[in-house]
Design a protein that fits this description.
Blueprint lengths: L2 H12 L2 E3 L2 H17 L3 E9 H7 L13 H9 L16 H12 L3 E6 L6 E8 L3 E7 L5 E6 L2 E5 L10 H10 L3 H7 L5 H24 L5 H10 L7 H17 L5 E3 L5 H18 L3 H22 L7 H17 L4 H15 L11 H20 L15 H15 L1 H12 L4
Parallel strand pairs: 2-3
Antiparallel strand pairs: 1-8, 2-4, 4-5, 5-6, 6-7
Helix pairs in contact: 1-6, 1-12, 2-4, 4-5, 6-12, 8-10, 8-11, 8-12, 9-10, 10-11, 10-15, 11-12, 11-13, 12-13, 12-16, 13-14, 13-15, 14-15, 14-16
C-alpha cells in the first residue's frame, strides 16, 4: 500500500460523523444490538462499562433529551432504536415518543449499571433480557467495534478483542499510519484525491454549524458569548487565535450540552474533530490560504491525531483533545503557514513539552476550557517554531523526531498515568449523584 493510499484510508476510517458525545453513542449502540438479539420488550438491561468509558459518558448532555444526561438514559434510548443497523449517529433525531419510553425504562429501574474497575480504555458490555430471550453485545477498542454478539448464550458474531494488530478497521488504520514516517506523510499530502479533499472540507462545514449554534444558543457555559463580550470590551484582541478559541469552545459547549447537530469526529472524538477543523479553517480564512493547502493541513492534523490515539489508546487518563488533537493541530497550523518537516518537528516538540500529561476528567461542558488551552498552545507552539524557537530533544519526554515524541506521549498515557486515572475516577464517583 502506498503512503497516500494508507493516509486516505485512515482518514476515511477514523473521521466520521457522530451525533452527541461518542461515548453515550457507543453505549446506545451496544444496548441496541443486545436488545435486537433478545427480541421483544426488554425487561432488564445490564450495562457494564470500563472506567474510562464511565468517565466520558456520565456527565454529557444527550441530544434530543432537553439537556438530560446519564449512561442509563443513553442505553435506554439504544433499546428503542429502529431502522437500519445503527452507527454513531444513533442518538440523532430522538422524538418525544422514543424519549418517553426511554425515561420510563430508566425510572422503572430496568437499566442496571455496573462499573468494571478492572477495565481500562474503551470497553462495554450490554446484556438484555426479555420474555423472548437474552441478548449480549460487547464493544471494545473503538466506539463501533463489536467484538461479540450473543443470542441466548450462542455466539452470533465474534471478532478479535482490541489487540492492535488484529482489531477493527479503525485500530488497524491507526497502526498503519503509525508505521509511516512523518516525512513520507508530508510528501503524500499533495497527492490527496479530490474526493478526500472534499470530505475534509465537509467536516469544516458540519462543525461550523455546531459552533454557530454555540454562539447563538449559548450552551451550558455560554463561553462563546463571553468571548464576544471580552473582544468588544477590548480585554481580548480580535486576532486569529482568539477567533479560533471562541469558535472551538462555543462548539464544544453546545455539543457537551446536548446539541442535536452532528459533528465530524477525529480519532473517535467529536471534540477532537472540532479542535482540528475549526482553528485551521479560521486561520485559512483570515490569511487567505488556498483551499488545497487547507485540505492538506487538515489531513496532516487528523493523521497525527490518529497516530497519537494509536499510542495512547482510544480513551486514557490523558486529555485527547489537548494532547492528541492539540498536537495534530500544531502540525496542521505549521504546515498551513508553509512550515516543512523541521518546523513541524520543532512545533510538535514545543507542544509536547508544554501540554503532555494534561488529565482527562471526563466529557462535560468544562471540556470547552480544555480546548481553549489546546488551541492557544497549538498556535503558540507553531508560531514559535516558525520563528526559530526549538526545544532541545534532551528535554524531558521530547524525542529527536516527531515519531519519537508521539511514542513518548503514548508511554506517559499508558502505562504512566493509569494510577492517575484511578484517582480521577475515585474523585468522580465520590460525588453525590
Amino acid at each position: 500500500m502506498t503512503t497516500v493510499s494508507c493516509l486516505e484510508e485512515a482518514l476515511r476510517t477514523d473521521i466520521k460523523p457522530a451525533c452527541g458525545c461518542t461515548e453515550p453513542a457507543a453505549i446506545a449502540l451496544a444496548a441496541c444490538h443486545a436488545s435486537r438479539q433478545a427480541g421483544g420488550e426488554i425487561e432488564r438491561l445490564d450495562v457494564q462499562v470500563s472506567t474510562n468509558l464511565f468517565k466520558n459518558a456520565v456527565e454529557v448532555g444527550i441530544p434530543g433529551t432537553h439537556g438530560a444526561r446519564g449512561i442509563e438514559l443513553a442505553a435506554a434510548l439504544g433499546c428503542f432504536s429502529s431502522g437500519e443497523p445503527p452507527d454513531l449517529t444513533i442518538l440523532n433525531a430522538i422524538d418525544e415518543a422514543r424519549l418517553a419510553k426511554a425515561l420510563a425504562m430508566v425510572q422503572a429501574g430496568r437499566i442496571v449499571l455496573h462499573l468494571d474497575q478492572s477495565r481500562q480504555g474503551l470497553h462495554l458490555e450490554c446484556t438484555a433480557r426479555s420474555r423472548s430471550g437474552q441478548g449480549r453485545a460487547v464493544i471494545s477498542g473503538s466506539h463501533e467495534h463489536i467484538v461479540r454478539l450473543e443470542r441466548n448464550g450462542a455466539i452470533v458474531h465474534a471478532a478479535p478483542d482490541h489487540a492492535p494488530t488484529r482489531s477493527s478497521k479503525v485500530l488497524e488504520a491507526r497502526q498503519a499510519l503509525a508505521s509511516q514516517r512523518v516525512s513520507d506523510l508530508l510528501d503524500a499530502l499533495p497527492a490527496l484525491s479530490s474526493e478526500t479533499r472534499q470530505f475534509l472540507l465537509e467536516g469544516i462545514e458540519m462543525n461550523r454549524k455546531v459552533a454557530e449554534a454555540g454562539l447563538h444558543n449559548g450552551g451550558g457555559l455560554h463561553i462563546g458569548s463571553a468571548y464576544r463580550t471580552l473582544i468588544q470590551k477590548g480585554w481580548l484582541a480580535n486576532d486569529v487565535i482568539t477567533q479560533a478559541k471562541m469558535l472551538t469552545s462555543a462548539a464544544v459547549d453546545a455539543r457537551m450540552s446536548g446539541c442535536d447537530l452532528p459533528v465530524m469526529t477525529s480519532g473517535g472524538s467529536g471534540n477532537q474533530g472540532l479542535t482540528i477543523t475549526l482553528p485551521l479553517s479560521v486561520l485559512a480564512t483570515i490569511r487567505h490560504i488556498p483551499e488545497a493547502r487547507l485540505t492538506e493541513a487538515l489531513a496532516l492534523a487528523h493523521a497525527i491525531t490518529s497516530i497519537l490515539k494509536h499510542h495512547t489508546g482510544t480513551l486514557s487518563a490523558m486529555c485527547g483533545c489537548v494532547v492528541c488533537a492539540g498536537t495534530g493541530l500544531t502540525a496542521g497550523v505549521t504546515y498551513l503557514l508553509g512550515g516543512g518537516l523541521d518546523a513541524i518537528t520543532a512545533a510538535v516538540n514545543t507542544m509536547t513539552g508544554g501540554i503532555t500529561g494534561i488529565i482527562c476528567d471526563g466529557a462535560k461542558v468544562g471540556c470547552a476550557i480544555k480546548l481553549v488551552t489546546a488551541v492557544d498552545a497549538a498556535f503558540q507552539s507553531s508560531f514559535m517554531a516558525l520563528h526559530g524557537v526549538i526545544l532541545p530533544s534532551s528535554n524531558g519526554v521530547l524525542g529527536a523526531t516527531v515519531e519519537e515524541s508521539l511514542r513518548n506521549i503514548g508511554l506517559v498515557a499508558a502505562p504512566g498515568m493509569i494510577g492517575t486515572d484511578t484517582q480521577i475516577l475515585a474523585i468522580m464517583t465520590s460525588k453525590p449523584a
